Each structure stands twice: as C-alpha cells, then as structure tokens.
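Morning F.,

Quick status update on the modeling queue. The single chain you submitted on Monday has been processed. Sequence for confirmation:
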Amino acid sequence: MNVQDTDAIAQLATQVLKIQKRLEVVETTLAASVQSANNNPRKVIEKEPHYTTINEPWYSENSGIEL
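Structure tokens below.
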C-alpha cells in the first residue's frame, strides 16, 4: 500500500466514526421520544354521534342545505 491508500483509509475510518457518533445521537433521541410517547399517550377525542337522515331525501346531510 502506498501513502495515498493509507490516507484514504484513514479518512474513511474518520468518516465512519463521525457517522457512528451521529447515529448514536439519533438513536438516543428516538429512544427518548418513544419512551415519552409511551408515558404520555395521546388523548382520544370522542366525537359526538352522527345521525343520518335516511327517510328525508330533500335534505343534504353534508351541507345542511335543503334541496
């Protein structure tokens, strides 16, 4: 191996280490986010029941406009 090959390998090794450090940060952040989501589940919003007007063809349920 010549000097250029050795330098290229060293640069790649440095880049791999930097990527591994970033990955550790992302994994830690993601784990904390998941833990937080598990500890604080979202509140389910209950909607009021929806009633349809089956026997009233003159009424448009979606718009509230009489046809």
